[in-house]
Amino acid sequence: MMWRCVLLLCVALSVESYTVHDLHERLAHGRQLKIYLPKSVDKLEFTPADEPGKTFLYWERTHSRVVKGRVSGTGNDRRWYLDKVTYEDQGTYTQRDYWNKEISTVKVAVTVRHNYVKCVAGESLYIPLEGIDIADSFLTFSGDVNVTLVREGARVSQDLPDYWDRVLTHSTKIEIRNVNVSDEGQYMLRDRRDRLVSVTRMDLTDKHEYSEGNPLMALLLLLGIPAGICCCCRKKIFKKKQNTANTLQASPVAVHPPPLMVLLVLLVLLVLLLPTALDLQQADTTKALTPTWVLQCTPLLSL
Q1: How far apart are CA 142 and CA 125, in angstroms?
Q2: How confident is the model at residue 134 (pLDDT cuts 50, 70, 90)?
């Protein structure tokens, strides 16, 4: 009976070790894909969703070869990264061991990227390409009018009086300069196969809300933290001395700096850091008086 239990346990463990684990990932276009590679994995293969009959080798440990993406870490902390996923990366990623046995699979689906941006009139609006090449990009605007601004990476907005010399193409983004009320609306980015990559909604605002802290408050915190630590240490030291006074009378006692010395150190820090804090405060005041058209557009991204 005992041998039967041991045999059944061994069979169960062996079946568990060869169980294929399936994972599912849904990522917005342009996000990073990360796949964990256990120590038992020897290669990573990819099967495209639109071409299930084809398989591509992306990574192989035996020959230290990386065909696509990048690998970071070693041993049990090894991971494979694809910095910006596109629709071409949809499919199944299969991990295999040295004997070409399937260990696990990761099925990846790519969705549309949604961006919401607020700009001040006169600023530039930046639309990221989300991983596609500029030559494969198509950008259309939907608002008061429906127009095409970029086709296959080329500016077609030069034929539009309202957009003449305002649309610029870069390697990773498309820029629309000097935005105004007529530019409020949705900007739809598509790839060469007419698949929707991202939708960027732009609205105008009077000013940007910054979450920068007050330099004077930061200075007070900087000075208060050492003082608090010093007080806590003094309490612990005095408590320890009181509890061990009868047993350590003959032992040498460490000399700690008196409170006056601590106050002098804090005073020196205050003298050294106060001019810097005042300069930062003056810089913030100057920035607040700067015309709003000088500021750059700050996107609020949301998937």
Answers
A1: 15
A2: very high
Strand 167-169 and strand 113-119: pairing?
A: unpaired
Between CA 260 and CA 6 the distance in angstroms is 73
- pLDDT band for 177, please (50, 70, 90 cuts): very high
Using H for helix, E for strand and C for coil, what is the string for 247-267?
CCCCCCCCCCCCHHHHHHHHH
The span from the CA of 91 to the CA of 27, in Å, is 12
Q: How many CB atoms lie within 10 A of CB 29?
A: 25
The helix-helix angle for 215-243 and 259-289 (nearest 10°) equals: 160
Total H helices, total E strands in the chain: 3, 19
CA distance 267 to 282: 22
125-128, strands of its sheet edge to edge:
125-128, 173-176, 167-169
Query: What pLDDT is stored for residue 239 in this prediction?
Result: 54
Name the amino acid, one letter, at 296: Q
Q: Which of 18-27, 61-70, 227-236 has the highest mean pLDDT?
A: 61-70
CA distance 131 to 129: 6
Whether residue 103 has pLDDT greater than 70: yes
pLDDT digits (tens, 9 = 90+) for 248-264: 444 444 445 455 566 66
Q: What is the pTM of this model?
A: 0.63
Nearest CA to 183 out of 303, 28, 297 is that of 297
Nearest to 95 by CA among 52, 54, 59: 59
